[in-house]
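WARN no homologs supplied; continuing
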Amino acid sequence: NVLKPHYKDRIKLILSDTDSFIYAVHTEDSYADLFKMKDFMDLSGYDEKTVLGKFYSPTNKKVPGKFSDEKPNEIIKEVVALKPKMYSLKTQTLSCKRSNENHHTCSQSCFEGHSATAKGVSRAAKKRISHSDFLSVLTNRDSATCVNRSIRSYGRTLYSIEVK
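OK structure emitted
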C-alpha cells in the first residue's frame, strides 16, 4: 500500500526472504523518493559520513513495521536469485573499510562488495562462492558443488567427515 501506488508499473519485486524484500525501481533517485516517504521508513542506518548521509533520520529507528535499507552503506548493483534462501548481491560500498590503515591506497576493489545467502551451505563454503558462480548457475544452468570437511563426535569418538 506504500510503494506500488507511488511507483505503479515502475516497481518489480525481485525477491522476498523471511523478513525482507528486494525491489527493482525505475526512478530518477530512489533514495530521494524513500526520503519523501520517511513516515513509512527507518532511515537510521545511513552513515552521515557517506553520500547517503543526507537521507539519515533517527525518527523511526527500530520501529516495527517500518521499511529499512538492509544495505545502508552499500548500493546494490546486481541481484541473482536462484530460489528461496539462495541468492547473491553484488554491491558497491560507499566507503573503504581499510582507509584508516597506514600506507593503504584505495582502489576500485575496496568499493566492491558481495554477500550471499545460501541455506544449507556452511559459512566456510559460502565464503568461497562468488557472485559469478551464482550468475553461471542462472545463465548456463551449471551446477555448483562444494566439499565441506568437518570434525564430528559420535559416541565419544572423533571422525573427520567430508560432505559434497
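DSSP finds four helices and nine strands in the chain.
OK
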